[in-house]
Amino acid sequence: MFFTLLVVLIVVVAILLSLVVLLQSGQGGGLAGIASGGQATQILGARQAPDLLEKASWTLGGALIFLCFIAPFTIGGEQQRSILQENAGSAPVEAPALNPNAPAEGTPAPGTPAPAGGGDGAAPPEPATE
After folding, report:
1. Which phi and psi (to 5°) does residue 94 adopt?
2. What's the rounded Cα separation, in Å, for the pair 60 and 71?
3. CA 12/CA 25 separation, integer angstroms
4. Are 60 and 13 a contacting pair, CB within 8 Å?
5. How far apart are CA 127 and CA 31, in angstroms?
C-alpha cells in the first residue's frame, strides 16, 4: 500500500519536474521571456520567474531522487513466493561429483575393459564350439 502511494507520488513529481524544466529556457526565453515587460514585470519582477523555476526544479529533482531511493525499502508488504522457492524444499537434490575429472555416470573408468557385446545391453555372443 505504501509502496503504491510512493510510486504515484514519484510519477506526479516527475511530471511536475518535466513541466518546470520545459518552462525554463537556457537563453532567457521560456517563462522568463514573458516577464520581460508589461504587467508581468510588475507582478513577478524582472528576475523572479527564472529564480522561482530554478528553485522549483532543484526542489523537485531532489524530491524525485529521494523518493526513488526510499521506494525499494517499502516493498516489504505482501511478497509472493516463486514456484522455485516453493519447490526448493520438496525435491531432494543430489550433489554433483566433487572431482571434475571423474567419469560421467554409466561410462567405464579409464583403464577398465569395455563390456563385451558392443555395449548395447544385449548378451555377448556365445563362442563357437567345434
Report:
1. -85, 130
2. 16
3. 22
4. yes
5. 104
What does the alpha-carbon distance between residue 18 and residue 60 come to, in Å, rounded to a whole number?
9
- 117, 124 in Cβ contact below 8 A? yes
Residue with cell 516453493: 86
Per-residue pLDDT of 33-69, as tens digits, reads 555 555 445 555 555 667 888 899 999 999 999 999 9
Supply 17's cell numbers: 519536474
Q: Give the orientation angle of helix 2-23 with respect to helix 48-70, to 10 degrees.
A: 150
Q: How far is CA 21 from the centre of its chain?
A: 27
**Residue 89 grid coordinates:** 524444499
What are the structural domain ranges in the chain?
Answer: 2-74
Which DSSP helix (H) or strand (E) runs through 2? helix 2-23
pLDDT at 10: 96
DSSP 122: S
Give the span between the Cα atoms of 79 and 86, in whole angstroms: 13
Q: Give the containing element (helix H, strand E) for 54.
A: helix 48-70
C-alpha cell at position 58: 532543484
